[in-house]
Amino acid sequence: ALQHLPATILTIMLRLLATAAALAAPALAQENAQYCGDMDIILGIGSSTVYPVAELFARRYTGEQIHAIARSTGSSLGIRNLLAGSTELGHASRAIKGSDYEKVDCPAADIGEDGVAINPCQGVFPIGIKIGNDMIAVMVSASNPINGMSFSAAQTLFTDGNTQTFNQAVGTGPNVVPTLYIPDPLSGTFDFFLEEIGVPLPTSGNSFSNDEDLISGIGEDTSALGFTGLAFAINEPGIKIVAIDGVNPETLLNQNNQGIPVDLTTYKFFRPLFMYYDGNLVQSAKFKVQRYLCALLAPEGQQIVTDVGYVSLTAGELAVSQFSAGCSTLPPAETTIDVENPNNESAQLANCRDSREIVMLGSSTVSPVAIQLSTLNSNTFLYMTGRSAGSSVGIQSFLAGAETIGDASRALKGSDYDALGCDPAGVSDDGIALATCQGILPRGLLIGKDMLAVVINAGNTWADNLSFAQLVCLFQIADDVPKTATFASCGIPQAPANVPNFYVPDIQSGTRSFFDEEVTPVGIPGFVDDEVILANIEADPNGVGFFGLAFAKTVAADIIVFKIDGLNPLVVEDQANYALGRPLYMYYDASVEGQRFEVDFHLCFMLSEFAQNVVESVGYVRLEESEIADTKDTLGLAC
């Protein structure tokens, strides 16, 4: 919904596109939705453990005319997407940590030791709602005679670089060193297990973002040892769940579900499951998210938690979660989906959950194009949504399976593979995937080009042109501690001897990544929203920063845009040779298994005259006919 978009994207859309009303109408809540596209979206991204509950609940929710979408990425990416403002819910199988804040340039100290946010991060105030509990299952192949092991034996066998065999560590079992099958490092399951077991785990090798692939691997390998959420392991014929210190989690769960009093916390790997939402959302949007969460905390929702294979909340836990979600004070929903009455026109909206979906998530530079095309989509059988999260989060979420399209204002990197536990050598130096990662073969569709605008407070009337060398010098000052260098230190003509202050995009941004690689690394914290960068520069006489061309066009009257080596990014004739030009991509899965008709259609549509007009109207540089032809040929698109 529009009320959830970062201010930068709203600015670009509302100032540049034809009419604000044309954009707002499809996204704003309707009293009674007529079509799928009329409904607001609740997008939930994150933990693969929470996903089965989230996906089933999303399909069953009728308390409001909402199109709910659940996607699995791992807890870390779920939380990072929430902090980037790209999702209404961040699913996690662990509590939020200070390191989650650090990854988006916020102080780690703003998360308390109890995993509760003390202050917002990038304008988002994450509030965690506990929705159930889980136990991590330690597993071996069904053919392995081991039925249990001590906690200390598990520590030995899971340690990175272990050379002991099952027989040596456990006292029984095969005389082979186990082959480990573990969740990828961005998984909350990985994080929680790592903290509880207290030994270093391998971060590469047999590392999986898909729990089904992990379990399948264990079932096919007689030397396997691994772990995942209990719900995924129950009733899997190829694997065996083993007891730890004499406690088997499957036995505990069965006893609990039969009403037999048991202390689930006696199991070493018992953990909470969360859904995080932004407490700073505007009221109307927050109410929708809170009503959704409160429905999951109701008896029918908690039954889904139990049915999936997890442990529903105790009465005390439920009271705390309902209080945190504000369940007792929420106004009622204005609309519902009446599935019990097929003659009610709202009943047809239940079919929307079966529509095809294209979720486009990532670069804040690309997302205005994705959002505009989503609003213009007239296919009632295809549901499209575009969200801004930053290129790194977008690409990594795409590789983890969260979205159909990963938007990026930079090329794919080996570090993107490495973050998912894949071999970074699987990406070439020029950003081409040479191998799959988590079963996905990413290919980048070039949709247009952008220029980075280097800007300064409008009061600096001396500011006009920077040589590339002066640009490098200027931003190297940003990392000086203490800051003693001045504008004049870089030899900028007529520049004063003032110390500049820098306001730049955050480290997850493709804009920041491009600048760090092409100009110089800027070792300071940044901001998710370009509007915040602009506001700081406008308020600071010595403020300097950079952002994308489309946003710069909309605010050019409020700041000064530097020429670089005499070339102005705002002048069309200068753009071809401008030093800070960059490509804009939409990444898709080119593997045989990932092929989808609606994605192929979307890729060709992005190269059409209509879509290229949208790229240009948003403020970017459209592709030349020759570039479109080369792109179709390179990617093998039958457009």
Overview features:
globular; 639 residues; eight-stranded mixed β-sheet; 25 helices; 34% helix
Put simply, the count of helices is 25
Major β-sheet annotation: 9 strands, mixed
Helix content: 25-40%
- Average of per-residue pLDDT values: 90
Shape: globular
Gyration radius over CA: 26 Å
Strand content: 15-25%
The total count of strands amounts to 21
Structural class: alpha/beta
Q: In terms of per-residue confidence, which ranges show pLDDT below 50 for 5 or more consecutive residues?
A: 1-5, 9-30
How would you sum up this structure, described in words?
The protein is an alpha/beta fold. It contains 25 helices and 21 strands. Strands 1, 2, 3, 4, 6, 7, 8, 9 and 11 form a 9-stranded mixed beta sheet that branches. Strands 12, 13, 14, 15, 17, 18, 19 and 21 form an 8-stranded mixed beta sheet that branches. The protein is globular, with a radius of gyration of 26 Å.
Quickly describe the structure.
With 639 residues, the protein is of the alpha/beta class.
List the helices and strands and how they pair.
Elements: H1 7-16, H2 20-27, E1 40-46, H3 51-60, E2 66-72, H4 75-83, E3 89-92, H5 98-102, E4 126-141, E5 148-149, H6 151-158, H7 166-170, E6 179-183, H8 188-197, E7 207-208, H9 211-219, E8 224-229, H10 230-233, E9 239-241, E10 243-244, H11 249-257, E11 270-278, H12 283-297, H13 299-308, H14 315-324, E12 356-362, H15 367-376, E13 382-388, H16 391-399, E14 405-408, H17 414-419, E15 442-457, E16 465-466, H18 468-476, E17 501-503, H19 510-518, H20 530-539, E18 543-548, H21 549-554, E19 559-561, E20 563-564, H22 572-575, E21 581-589, H23 597-606, H24 609-618, H25 625-635
Parallel strand pairs: 1-2, 1-3, 5-10, 6-7, 6-8, 12-13, 12-14, 16-20, 17-18
Antiparallel strand pairs: 3-11, 4-8, 4-9, 4-11, 14-21, 15-18, 15-19, 15-21
